[in-house]
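Morning F.,

Quick status update on the modeling queue. The single chain you submitted on Monday has been processed. Sequence for confirmation:
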Amino acid sequence: MRQIVIDELSPMERDNIDSYLKRNLRQGPVIGLYWLPLPADLLSPLQLEHRQCSPFHIGIEVERDKVRFEFLVRSTGNLHCPCTAYATPGQRQFIIDFIDRMLAEEQIRA
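Structure tokens below.
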């Protein structure tokens, strides 16, 4: 899986990240999983064509001492559709910008 992992988090840093994600994103079906929705202007041509599969998002998983940001853009409506694909360069930049903003706001130094 292509992903960015921020590790070696202290318990306080992990709790701050978890709190930030709870305040800003929708929680997934299990504890510690969050969905970062992608804006429509960043969707690939195939994702735009597949409106029935939207919304599109990336998964974020908070673990004991790390947080993982997937680069797999997932469809909410259909997991086995070709519109579920790895992030485009623009989508990757959106994910990285989100991570940078979160770390800055929560003053995470890991």
